[in-house]
Amino acid sequence: MIDKLQKKGISQAAVWQRIKKYKWIYLMLMPALIYFIVFRVTAIIGMKLAFYDYKIVGENTFVGLKYFKMLFETPAFWNILKNTLLISSIKIFLIFPFPVIFALLLNEVGRTKFGKFVQVVSYMPHFLSWVIIAGIWIDAFSQGGMVSSLMEMLGIEYKNLMVDKDAIIPILTGSEMWRSVGWDSIIYLSAILGISKELYDAAAIDGAGRWKMVRHIILPALAIPMVTVLILNVGFIMSAGLDQILNFSNDAVLSRIDIIDTYVYRIGLVNTQYSFATAASLFKGVIGTILILLTNFISKKLTGSGAW
User: Fold this and answer.
1) DSSP 182-217
2) What is the distance of C-alpha 278 from the center of its chain?
3) Is the pLDDT of residue 307 over 70?
4) Which end of the chain is more exposed for a tag (fewer CB within 10 A), N or C?
5) Burial, 173: exposed, middle or buried (Cβ in 10 Å; 0-12, 13-18, 19+)?
6) Taking a C-beta distance cutoff of 8 angstroms, is the pair 94, 176 a contact?
7) What does the alpha-carbon distance between residue 44 and residue 277 come to, in Å, rounded to a whole number?
8) Is-contact 187 123, C-beta < 8 A?
9) Where are the alpha helices (DSSP H) in the chain?
10) Dihedral sign from CA coordinates of 97, 98, 99, 100
11) Environment class of residue 185 by beta-carbon count within 10 Å: exposed (0-12), middle (13-18) or buried (19+)?
């Protein structure tokens, strides 16, 4: 940050003076910084375990790419990789427009009591853990639940969709939308509320209707946050949601929704093959980093803006 401010012609003394002035704001960042240093940065050091044969007693033996070769030669790995990419792609690209649409709808409703009520209700699922969300959805789809009762009313024979391989991915998608659409719309709604009222007034004088205002004023203002969010989401394409999958999985559908994170969990923590699990996790992290850099590069070429 200091280097960036100095490039803008601000002296180092002025930088430290600014930091001193806003010291309480910077202190508010400390918990987040400590979290990332402890659980993210220091964890990178442990990634070297992927190249060693881990021993509880004695020194670890360097084995090079042994565990990566084992990973790629494991038949189940390619099915797991396919599941990971499928579920992540659905979450990133299929769900991506819905927070934008929801923000546009909230903006049209305005600051009415109904609009505020919808906002509060839509944000609430984000604060629920996946244990609670999975319990709600499993109960809804179980015999006597809301979905089964609705099926009976429509004369449809009951079938437990939670153990149906063809239905489990749409259920994961629906639960993710229910949990995240309202919360994710905050960034877009904030960008909309930041648009100058003078632009709307000028457009109204020119005879622009509401749709033209949305098309020519609001959507261009959402372009940069949309690109930024998309770039960051693409970086997590190898992370399809460990907490969600663990809570929704069962033996009947595991082959369809088994992902790299659940695979690493079973191999590393359950079977104690730490080096092998670290190799799988490192592979996931490297692919995610490459995708972030590639997406950011393409975005800058096509739109002139990126995440940084």
Assistant:
1) HHHHHHHHHHHHTS-HHHHHHHHHTT--HHHHIIII
2) 22
3) no
4) C
5) middle
6) no
7) 14
8) no
9) 2-7, 12-21, 23-28, 30-36, 42-45, 66-73, 75-89, 97-109, 113-123, 130-141, 146-153, 165-193, 197-205, 210-213, 219-234, 242-248, 254-257, 260-264, 274-303
10) positive
11) buried
pLDDT digits (tens, 9 = 90+) for 43-64: 788 888 889 888 777 788 888 8
What the block records as the tokens of 252 is 């009947």
Q: What is the pLDDT of residue 305?
A: 61
CA distance 283 to 170: 27
Q: Give me the residues paired with residue 259 across strands.
A: none
Hey, what amino acid is at 189?
A: L
Which token pair is 100?
């934008």
Reported as a single tens digit per residue, the pLDDT across 198-253 is 888 888 888 888 888 888 889 988 988 888 888 778 877 888 888 999 999 888 89
Report how far residue 282's alpha carbon sits from residue 207's, in angstroms, rounded to the nearest whole number.
Answer: 56
Q: Token pair for residue 159?
A: 């079938």
Question: Which residue's structure tokens are 């319990």?
Answer: 135
Task: Yes or no: say if 287 and 81 are a contact pair by the CB < 8 Å rule.
Answer: no
Identify the DSSP state of 156: P
Token duo for residue 187: 């960034």
Q: Give every CB contact of residue 172 below 8 A, 6+ residues apart in sequence.
A: 87, 90, 241, 244, 245, 248, 257
- What token pair was written down for 10? 């601000």
Query: Are 228 and 71 in contact, with CB atoms under 8 Å apart?
Result: no
